[in-house]
Amino acid sequence: MRVQKHLYAEGPEVCQHIIVHPPGGIAGGDRLDISVNVGADAWAQLTSPGAAKWYRAASPAFQQLELHVQPGATLEWLPQETIVFSNAQAELSTSIELHGDARLCYWDVVALGRPASGERFEHGHFQSHLDIRRDGTLLWHERQRIIGDDGLLDSPIGLDGKTVFATLLLTGDVSSDLLEDCRSLSMPKPVRGNLTQLPGFPGMPGLIVARCLADEALHARAWLIEIWKRLRPALLGREAVTPRIWNT
């Protein structure tokens, strides 16, 4: 993993990092360890130039992501989608540690199979663990494991036939009017999405959770971007500026 560029499209206060994985994809037996530490009062926005690809494999491949955000700091983790090929064995673990009044905007977009190429996610598995803590207190704990051709892929209590699912998590609290504005968002392509605000522990901000299902990663990401554009000014105090790399 490499940091390709440091950009300051929003001025000196926000440093945008473009991170790349030179091999272009992750195969069986690979292990990718990523560790990020955002120093006190800094603002880091991390994104990627393209999709992360997990290839078909005879053995598991692993990614471990550790994010540390120090007091007064802000981290925006905004990578492009993860594509999980049929027969891949992808196992991801993410741990996020927030310290003091650190702020977080984190999203994740996962596409199962490659429908445009006629490939359904019929074999293999996708496994993901996500923990978010603030000063040692657990704020969010999530575990999921999706098996190729599992009934939940088509079940209405699962993915309901959609091949892409996405999550956006932001720390902070917003008005009910802003939440309703986000919920009423109209998109040109079919995306099923909703969001909710979870209360924080005493003395801690809450957590906003947005999720969606879509037929294409492009549609899911477009929905996340619109939600991000609406929530960023309220939660982080800055208008959203779309990274240029997303348009290349």
Give a written overview of the molecule.
By secondary structure, this protein is mainly β. It has one domain. It contains two helices and 15 strands. Strands 1, 2, 4, 5, 7, 8, 10, 13, 14 and 15 form a ten-stranded mixed beta sheet that branches. Strands 3-6-9-11-12 form a five-stranded mixed beta sheet, with no helix packed on it. Strand 14 and strand 15 form a beta hairpin. The model has no long low-confidence stretch (mean pLDDT 94).
List keywords for this structure.
5-stranded mixed sheet; mainly beta; 11% helix; Urease accessory protein UreD; 44% strand; 248 residues; 10-stranded mixed sheet; nickel cation binding; cytoplasm; single chain; UreD
Quick overview:
It is found in: Cytoplasm. By secondary structure, this protein is mainly β.
| Number of strand elements | 15
Characterize the main sheet: 10 strands, mixed
| Overall body shape | globular
- Report the structural category: mainly beta
The arrangement of helices and strands along the chain is EEEEEEEEEEEEEHEEH
What is the radius of gyration computed over CA atoms, rounded to a whole number of angstroms? 18 Å
| Straight-line N-to-C gap | 20 Å
Low-confidence stretches: none
| Number of separate helices | 2
Mean pLDDT: 94
- Helix fraction bin: 10-25%
- Count the domains: 1
> What proportion of the residues form beta strands (DSSP E)?
35-45%
Function: Required for maturation of urease via the functional incorporation of the urease nickel metallocenter.
Subcellular location: Cytoplasm
GO molecular function, one term: nickel cation binding
Pfam family, one: UreD
